[in-house]
Amino acid sequence: MRLRHTLDPSVDPALRDGIVRLWTDVTNAGGAVGFVPPVTVGEIRPELVRHLAAMADGSARLLVGRDENGEVAATAFFSFNSHRLMTHWVWLYTVMVHPRLQGGGHGRELMAAVAAAARGFEGIEAIRLGCRGGMGIERFYASCGYKEVGRVPGAIRVADGDDRDDITMLLPLY
Hints:
This protein is 30% helix and 34% strand. By secondary structure, the chain is of the alpha+beta class. Strand 3 (72-80) and strand 4 form a beta hairpin. The radius of gyration is 15 Å and the shape is globular.
């Protein structure tokens, strides 16, 4: 099964609920997407609302992957820079694939769709993303063509006594 990726999908209650459920499931399975498990839909929803507000004002875009039943199974949010010296690259946030689909190539599929979408953004030459150290996720991004360009030791505190590196990865698009 392949996911069907859509850039800038129409935001309706089904999409909002699907993203918040995905985000909750990914976090509770141990995914590093801005929260530490356990979390509830109610804890995730305000952060999703911030992402959707950024989409509404044009500073962010969404790529969503849906499974064969049309359910939200993957996401990636692009965030555009407003600083005039940094408008040639975008940030990538909240990159997720549902835990039931991980290990089947869907993450690579999502990252290929991300790169293809970004290549269609006028003036964008690179994608930058941050990831949490200690999970090996930087190796996955490296296998998708991203290069580690920065690391801040212990910048992410997931619990008392558990600090992780904040790793910055970059994918040049050309």
